Amino acid sequence: MPSIITILHRTEYNYDRPVVLDPHLLMLRPRDGHDLWVNDAFLTIQPQASLRWYFDTFGNSVAEASFAGATDRLLIESKLILRRYVSDRLVRGDAVHVCPYPFVYTEDDIRDLQPFLGLQHPEDSAILDAWLQGALPKQADDAVSFLRGLSDAVHMNLRYSAREEMGTQTAAQTIATGVGTCRDFAFLFMEAARRYGFAARFVTGYLNDGPMSPGVSLAGPIGGGATHAWADVFVPGEGWIEFDPTNRITAGSALIRVATTRTPAQASPISGSFKGDGATCRGLFVSVDVRENAD
Question: Residue 275: which residues within 8 A CB-CB, separation 6 or more?
Answer without folding.
Answer: 19, 20, 22
